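User: Sequence in, structure out. Go.
Assistant: Echoing your sequence, followed by the structure tokens.
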Amino acid sequence: MSRQSFDARLQLKALAASGGFSGYASIFDVVDQSRDVMAPGAFAASLAAWAAKGRLPAMLWQHDAAEPIGAWDEMREDVRGLHVAGRLFVDDIARARQAYALLKSGALTGLSIGFRTVEAIYDEASRVRRLLEVELHEVSLVTFPALDAARVGDVKAVPRVGTVREFEAFLRDVGGFSNAAAKAIAGGGFKAASTPRDEAAGLFPLVRAHQRRLDRLTTSINTR
């Protein structure tokens, strides 16, 4: 299977409440780093085949078939590209909660499609391959997409935190922090927490990048 990445500006909706979001997994007529460009209508036959089966391609983490993190509820072509809408299973899958935290912070920026090329035209002069038809296998949340044309958009419905305890629960349940780290961050800010478990999970560097934002939020909660 040939995999190509097409990054698009995601419009994340009600992410805090349900893990739901929508956006574009592929943009038409834009050349990516692999010198591929997706033609309008390239997904039509594949989407029809999926519809006939009564299901949609998988939602994966970084193209890893062993790590589904949610489900797609809708996929359709429009004039811009392949529009998708789905849900992260934040209540049941730890990796989905990590994806949530990364999306919310802006550290995770793209969607990427995994597919098999059915029909394509190669232009010798431009060295660009135009994909006329593809068989869509999956759509992943990825860190490094091939097309750098746009980035993740706004996240709506940010969780409401009115107390230190609610902030602790947010850090633990959504951010994936340990109980001790969540309590330390909520009570004393970023510098108060650093545990081997959080560092091993790859989450501590994410907090480091957003230390000021977390400290401001903690201060706001503590003074209410």
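User: And one key feature?
Assistant: The chain has two domains: 2-142, 164-222.
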